[in-house]
Amino acid sequence: MQDLFASPLFQIVALGVAGIIVWHLQGRGRPNARLVVQIAFFLAMTALLFGNGISPYKFEPMGDGGGMLIAAKLLWWVHLAWAVIGFVRIYIVLDGRPREARLLQDLIIAMVYLGVTLSVLSMFGFAIGTLLATSGVIAIILGLALQSTLNDVFSGLALTLGRPYGIGDWIILSDGTEGRVVESNWRSTYMLTASNNIVVLPNSYLAKIGLTNTSRPDETRQVALSLRVKPTRTPNFVAEAMRQAMVGANNIVHEPAPVVALKGVDAFAIEIELQFRVRHPAATTIARNELIDLVYRQCKATGIDLAPPVAASIVLVEKHDPGHASPETLQELLQSNPIFADVEQDELPTLEASARLRHYRAGDILLDGLDSLPSLMVVRSGTAAAVCDGGEVVRFAPGAIFGRIDGVLPQATRYEALTALEAYEIAGQTLASLLGGYPQIQDKLSLQLSSLASDLSATGGHPAHGRHVSDILRTVHGLLGR
Fold this sequence. Notes:
Elements: H1 2-6, H2 8-26, H3 31-51, H4 66-94, H5 102-123, H6 128-145, H7 147-162, E1 170-173, E2 178-184, E3 188-192, E4 198-202, H8 203-208, E5 211-213, E6 221-229, H9 235-247, E7 259-265, E8 270-278, H10 284-302, H11 330-335, H12 348-354, E9 356-360, E10 365-368, E11 375-381, E12 384-388, E13 391-396, E14 401-404, E15 413-417, E16 421-427, H13 428-434, H14 439-459, H15 469-479
Antiparallel strand pairs: 1-2, 1-5, 2-3, 3-4, 6-8, 7-8, 9-16, 10-15, 11-14, 11-16, 12-13, 12-15
Helix pairs in contact: 2-3, 2-4, 3-4, 4-5, 9-10, 14-15
């Protein structure tokens, strides 16, 4: 028994078995420790093999102790394969490779196992050359039978190396299909479309078709909105009006700034294209809807008339006096707002008569957190922004309603004009006296103002003077006389 323990073959086998046990005890969550164990046991086994003149890659006739010799060589090859595979996996993870690199990793691991298998067969005296020739014929037969599948596999490998997209990227194919890449394997790629459907695309198809990756260098996306207006104003005036309309949008990117492109002009219309960027492809519809509403309001506020489409069979040429613009009155602004839809028509002129129309230049402060008098403001034209602790929270376009409620907004909050701006100011007492008979309107207005106050407080990183939303609602109700 003592001779058995002193045998180098027994020691190599014992090291190999111990290495396998320790490797499993490390667990999958410790890949670095596993790699260290693999390398340590492999080096110890290598030292014992070559120190005793045993070559693990040469064929040796079976003799006494032949079973122990075979076991020692097999364990050495297994540890070699695991050490190489562990190094490959650690390298790909630590080097920041994308998730798709798993395909390349699997290919390398398969090559390692194939090489180890051939080496073990040569150790038993198999003619590797003859075996490779035979396997080559088999590979040709399988290649012809699996031509489509192999095309997808090698296309997947090419896409992995080229990296035209990654997991999470939003791509648009030349056939119109678009969506976010959620999975990629050897044979196919899975896309999640905007309609919440999974589209499975063979890798060979993706390798041939053209695609646009909208997630690189970032997820912002260029969108264009075309419109036609009657040439009753100069093109420069129209372009500036449209630019001011886009300044008030909350769902587009303002850096870089949106662009107004004049595409053409004739006797019937000025053709304009609004070019802007959205934060991600899914926000395109929301941003477009918002801009259409803002453009409509801006046209009405500045006296710009929309022109009929080019395809219209009859074009009506109307006389228009460009010197008489018809910006919206407070009554029209309130009527277009769902909050005031239930107010009696004969009471709106009274409310408008009590309001004051104020004019501001770009950069002027409309209200700030130090104001003590409660008031309500309705934007007539231009754009304002709510700024809290130096950060912009929300923008207000024509028709927007905001106000200063005593004790609700953070001290650091201010309302600032981003463009030349006109706004109606309504005192809190006047509003309360006129709307005393409309509790449903007071509730809607209270919810809107308190929601804005909560957003501003959250942005400032603290609640509004320690109040909750219910406290804010009570304060707003107090402003409205409830």
